[in-house]
Specification:
This protein is mainly alpha-helical. It has helices at about 10-45, 50-60, 70-90, 95-115, 120-135, 140-165, 175-195, 205-225, 235-265, 275-300, 305-330, 335-365, 380-385, 390-400, 405-425, 435-445, 450-475, 480-500, 500-520, 525-545, 555-580, 590-610, 620-645, 655-675, 690, 705-725. It is globular, with a radius of gyration of 29 Å. Residues about 1-20 and about 370-390 have low confidence and may be disordered.
Length: about 725
């Protein structure tokens, strides 16, 4: 049975995802249900305002922010103010459909811009739009609207209190979780490489690329949340943090070696090599996957017993490399394949070195006194106080309003779509028709394919939820039982909205039916209008995404591709400079790798979105996939050269590398110009000079220099592929 390292990550999955999701879901349950239970007991009756209070707490609790604790509290406090103001504005504009439409346009623009702040911006944008639309369905006087607003704000304040009280009980430091996740994604890439190269499973290269992208996303997410400190103090308190940053760097370098392994294994298709694919190669990659999985666990737990198990796995990696080397000597391969297998073995040694380095870093961290710095949220209160400083708050505000023209067009699309939805709701006086615009607000995404997918999920989840929720409503159950059901359902709402949107919508719909039952508003007619409004809203969302200034990927792809080529060119230049010890800026080549791979990911994601668009809109999807693959392979090959820099012995200086880069730069500039102006006929660049630049005997003096030459030749081949595509005019902007 094939080893599946992901199954070995049950501990990490349980602690990194399952437990935090459950604790977050419990906080959502407390936020929603405590007001519904406690306030009626205090007042002696159930009032409609309590529902507003509960939703105020609920919407605030849904914020899925996983960074520093103080920042989440600041964000929640800001959202509380915005929700309250939006509800008051909605209630005071509800009596005029003309004013409602104009107000919806303004609120929609604001909510859509907020949505682009970051991952948590969507929660704020939906909350603002929700309470404005909730207000439109409840026209009252100004004094009454302020009263409702006070209930919303009180509910939001209760949710903030839950967040404040919850920080000592978080399972572990988010820094460790973010680094452990990088090792988890490394393990997932190894697992897919085992399936592709060491088993009979048919795996597409796109699946491999997606796993590589996941590693880069995990690294970027950790970097965005936890940057290196500018102040390099030597206190023990800060050494813990610095060590985690070093472990993160090592995990990223280990992931880079996996990319190189994949590149070399693609070449090894000789029948003689097939003899060891399902045996020796399988065991070797499995040993590394198990070690990577164990590192993910030990980084998260930092328990000595887990570290001991990791060391055992590392010993197996060492033995596996030896066995693979011995088995490789008995193979009859071509010269090209012999070079590939030798490079693969060298990469195995580098990967093993990064595993060892990580273990040493963990041991060093464990040797520090825990009393010097407890990596728990108990000390995040200090960060909370720091975060209240004006500089930190201004930084947060600057980040929030850093929008570009693409975001503005998306906001305009959302605002116009929502305004049409409000017009239909108000002009035709549809009962509970505010769900039309609310559905649109949730469904409309920046890209058409994502909007269509979410619209379908919304419709399916709503209809299924209505069927079950309606059946529950028919049951002759007492009020207390419905409250109990609400507690259970609200837990599943929070849990599945994070993990499976369609299932989350299913439970949201059931929750809304139960809430209507508790507030004595439930009726089949109302439920029918709810379903109809959802269907109309989802349809309007898809139409708006198609009609109002859509951004099709065939237009976005060329500039993204051009930028990716630029970043790969910068990456190559920096690596070659480092190789020859010519660096003058003091910046690591690893930083340039991260930027290049991130730009590659953007190109790959663009093509994936292109596939989801209508066929008559698409343009040369297969060719675009091929071009995206070229940029990804360019980065892999540059990384293969870069990894030699981190060896104990510095490589010999090769002056000809400067000439090579100058010729490659001319070719890349030619490709970039064709991306900008694809219809201009121009002769292909001259590849003879770049090939001559690496024909020197200096590349034959050692195994290492021969390896470098082979990688440089691969880069030339990829560039030739791009140029031929343009020459044959198969690509058009």
């Amino acid at each position: 049975m094939r080893f599946q390292p992901i199954q070995q990550l049950q501990t990490v999955l349980k602690q990194e995802y399952f437990e935090p999701t459950i604790t977050w879901a419990f906080r959502v349950v407390l936020a929603l249900n405590v007001p519904l239970i406690v306030v009626p007991l205090y007042q002696g009756h159930f009032s409609y305002e309590v529902v507003w209070m509960a939703f105020g707490a609920y919407m605030l609790a849904l914020i899925d922010y996983r960074g520093l604790h103080y920042k989440k509290i600041v964000i929640q406090s800001l959202e509380a103010i915005l929700m309250t103001l939006a509800a008051i504005v909605g209630m005071n504009t509800a009596n005029s459909w003309q004013v409602s439409v104009v107000a919806m346009f303004v609120v929609g623009m604001f909510a859509a811009l907020i949505r682009n702040w970051s991952d948590y911006g969507a929660s704020i944008g939906v909350a603002v739009g929700f309470f404005f639309l909730f207000g439109l369905s409840n026209p009252v006087s100004f004094s009454e609207s302020v009263n409702y607003g006070m209930y919303i704000f009180a509910g939001a304040a209760w949710s903030v209190v839950i967040t404040i009280l919850a920080f000592p009980f978080r399972p572990s430091n988010p820094i460790r979780r973010s680094v452990a996740k990088i090792w988890k994604t490394n393990t997932e890439l190894l697992d897919i490489l085992i399936q592709k190269h060491a088993s009979d499973t048919i795996i597409d290269n796109i699946d491999v690329t997606e796993k590589e992208t996941a590693i880069r996303d995990a690294v970027n997410h950790s970097i965005n949340l936890f940057a290196r400190r500018d102040n390099k103090t030597s206190s023990l308190k800060t050494q813990h943090y610095d060590m985690m940053m070093e472990i993160r760097k090592t995990s990223s370098l280990f992931g880079a070696t996996l990319n190189t392994m994949h590149e070399e294994l693609e070449i090894l298709d000789h029948p003689d090599f097939q003899k060891i694919r399902n045996t020796v190669l399988y065991k070797t990659l499995s040993a590394f996957a198990q070690a990577s999985a164990r590192l993910s666990i030990v980084i998260f737990t930092f328990r000595p017993e887990d570290l001991s198990l990791t060391k055992i796995r590392l010993k197996r990696c060492e033995i596996a490399i030896q066995l693979f080397e011995e088995a490789s000597k008995e193979l009859t391969l071509t010269h090209k394949e012999k070079l590939a297998i030798q490079h693969f073995i060298n990469t195995l040694h580098k990967s093993y070195g990064y595993l060892q380095q990580t273990v040493l870093q963990i041991e060093q961290k464990l040797n520090l006194k825990k009393s010097d710095y407890l990596e728990n949220y108990k000390l995040t209160f200090n960060n909370f106080l720091v975060g209240l400083k004006p500089r930190a708050i201004m930084e947060l505000i600057r980040e929030a309003f850093n929008v570009n023209s693409q975001h503005f067009v998306y906001a305009l699309r959302v605002a116009l779509g929502l305004s049409i939805g409000v017009f239909v709701y108000k002009f035709f006086k549809i009962d509970h028709g505010h769900w039309i615009s609310l559905t649109m607000l949730i469904v409309i995404q920046p890209y058409f394919g994502a909007t269509r997918k979410k619209g379908i999920e919304r419709i399916v989840g709503t209809i299924a939820g209505i069927v079950l929720g309606g059946a529950i409503m028919l049951l002759p159950l007492p009020h207390d039982v419905f409250v109990g059901l609400l507690i259970i359902v609200s837990f599943f709402v929070a849990y599945f909205l994070r993990n499976n949107y369609k299932v989350g919508v299913f439970f949201v719909t059931i929750m809304m039916v139960i809430l209507m039952q508790i507030s004595q508003q439930a009726s089949w007619e109302l439920i029918g209008w709810r379903v109809l409004s959802t269907l109309i809203g989802a349809l309007f969302a898809v139409v708006a995404s198609y009609v109002f200034w859509p951004v099709w990927e065939k237009k976005r792809f060329p500039p993204l591709m051009e930028y990716a080529l630029l970043q790969n060119k910068n990456y190559l230049q920096r690596v070659l400079q480092y190789y020859n010890n010519e660096n003058t800026l003091g910046e690591s080549w690893n930083k340039f790798r991260r930027i290049a791979e991130a730009s590659n990911n953007d190109v790959f994601a663009s093509v994936q979105r292109m596939v989801q668009e209508p066929e008559h809109i698409q343009s040369n999807v297969d060719l675009s996939f091929a071009m995206a693959g070229v940029t990804i392979r360019l980065s892999r090959e540059i990384t293969s050269i870069a990894l030699t820099i981190n060896e104990k012995e510095r490589p010999a200086v090769i002056p000809q590398l400067s000439d090579y880069f100058l010729e490659v730069e001319k070719i890349m500039n030619w490709v970039s110009s064709r991306l900008a102006q694809p219809h201009i006929n121009e002769a292909l660049p001259d590849f003879s000079k770049v090939k001559e630049s690496i024909n020197s005997d200096v590349f034959l003096v050692s195994e290492q220099t021969r390896f470098v030459k082979a990688e440089l030749e691969k880069i030339i081949f990829e560039l030739e592929t791009l140029c031929i595509l343009f020459k044959e005019k198969k690509y058009s902007r």
